[in-house]
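Posted in: Protein Modeling Q&A

I'm a second-year student putting together a small comparison for a lab meeting, and my supervisor asked me to include a predicted structure for Thiamine pyrimidine synthase. I've never done this before, so apologies if this is the wrong subforum. The sequence is pasted below exactly as I got it from our records. If anyone can share the structure token output, I'd also love a short note on what stands out.
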Amino acid sequence: MIRRRHALALFGSAALAAPAVHAQSLLDVRFTLDWALQGPQGAFLLALDRGYFREAGLNVTMDRGFGSGDVPVKISAGAYDVGVADLNPTIRMRLERPESDLFTPFIIHDATAMAIMTLRRENIRTPADLVGKTLASPESDAGRQLFPAFAKAAGIDPNSVRWTTVTPQLREPMLVQGRANAITGFITSGIFSLRGLGIPEQDIVTMLYSDVGADFFATSLITTRRWATANPRAVTGLIRGLVRAQYDSLRDPAATIANLRRREALTDVALETERLRMALDRLTFTDHVRRNGFGQVDIPRLQRSIDAVREAFAISRPMPASDIYDPSYLPPATDLRLA
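Accepted answer (user: helix_wrangler)
Welcome! Here is the predicted structure, written out as tokens:
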């Protein structure tokens, strides 16, 4: 059953010969995605629909998300057990709320998708051109939350821009209609959504956060220490399933999008396939991951990211990388590199 209101409830199925597991032995897991059902989210849905979680003894209910900044809030409040989201809003929450026990046991995207996107007609070519301009974004958008880090790295005042708060569905239309000069978001969302609204690719101007030195890790599995400590095998099972589905999607993106379309009938197959390929090629399977597999996190780089968030928000309290990332739940290395 699919509920189409505030959240889409996507119930796990034992598709593709999942082993016989009695329902009463399954652990219920409430899982939130970071965004709407688009190409990159298709890889997470694939793990659900191919029964990878169920094989691990998990009955996963997976809902669409409303931004990476929203995910840690809802997990902290107990609405969900786990989720996938850009890691940096969670880092910010941990810095601002030392009592929080949020962390990630698994980083999925080795490169950040956060960017400023605008249209050529706006004559914004460099970060300095943003001064005095209006940016549209949901408050929960990771790019908006981390804009101070982008601004600091780019050498501009983060208070020199104006913000218009919009729902996720209105972000790109606001730019197209000329009601905003630029938007923040993920390249996997913004670029393709603008193209879907009829904007030629050559008219889209993109400034990646990594281009100015804000080289963050990105989408990660988020949960609490409390839940992970109580359910360590479940955390490892989730990671194993997510890894399998990422490699499945790399080998056969068409199958991933076909599965997504079964969930979302209005899926633009060509556009979402391209969106998924971008996520896989530029964010997930970077040169580092292709050489080493998942789970080989560059800890000094992660620490630099934490410090960049801390400095951007003028937070004096330091936080070691071990507070936010714990690899002890990872499955064996053979399950983290499947090609």
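A couple of things worth pointing out for your meeting: The domain at 2-111+217-335 is CATH 3.40.190.10 (D-Maltodextrin-Binding Protein; domain 2). The longest strand covers residues 27-32.
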